[in-house]
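Long-time lurker. I teach an intro course on protein structure, and each term I like to show students one example going from raw sequence to a predicted 3D structure in token notation. This year I'd like something fresh instead of my usual example. Would anyone be willing to generate the tokens for the chain below so I can use it in lecture? Attribution to the forum is fine with me.
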Amino acid sequence: MSSPRKILVTGATGSIGKELVRALGAKQYNVAVLVRDPLKAGGVFAGQALEIIGLQDAEWASGVAAFAPEVVVHLASMLTSLDDLDVIPGLIASNITFGAQLLQALRPGAVRLFVNTGSFAEYFYGDGQLNPAYLYAATKTAFHSIVNYHQQLSSFAVANVIPYTVYGQPDTQPKAIDLIYRSFSDASPLNMSGGEQTLDFIHISDVVDFYCALIERSNSPQTHWTDYHLGTGQGVTLRQIAQLMSAQLNKPENINWGALPYRARDTMYAVAPIARLINYFGWRPVVNIDAGIDKFLRMKHDVTILNQA
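-- Reply from a regular --
Happy to contribute to a lecture. Here you go:
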């Protein structure tokens, strides 16, 4: 079976999606993106040949069916640590309802691989057992059953990719690593928790490389569900991240460690078990944390210069 040529990506204007769509375009795939804001997508991917399907169009499902993708990469998601009453409808709509509608729109079709994107927060104890740390993660876990239902109907393979702490890309939703970086220039100290959370930081370039490798090898005649915990297999605490930045910037961070309590069910240890990536898939990340922090700082510098221009 030949390599797939038609790829549909949801969440294409998100932090991972933008880099992945550009990489797929460079590899000459026929790419379609399913997005809420076609104008935004047109600006993000200006100059790249792709098909933009807007969710505001009542006929978007027909557009998906007409494109007939062989591989679907489902990145679209609402990410939040909140579980307030007013947050719940958005979480359900983004992380469950939309995915269910997408899978229905793909029936019947040519899809042979559905790449679902999960979260390491679905595995609170890091033992491979599903135990969502908070409501966002619970909605991701709930979606598994819907994917499995459609898999039984259509016999496509499912690659459930679980990215760990992705960094290195401009992100409109600041994460802990962005807040730490900001502390070096802020006049007022940044109040944070104790910073003892041990996380697996994987650079965006490695994340995109894995998704591309997964797509390129999707001609394997698998029809089952495979989990891929996507990380480096190495853990680094938030305090160590601050120390690495401090060493490269040659200045101290401005953080009050321990000023805030840890959140209920805060993830204190999340390091990817990557044996399957190595032994089964033959893939390893190439950017270690030292090189990754250097790339991260250069990216932040470039973004600052661009914003000032």
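Some talking points for your students: Residues 6-165+202-230+274-286 form a domain with the Rossmann fold fold (CATH 3.40.50.720). The chain has a mean pLDDT of 94.
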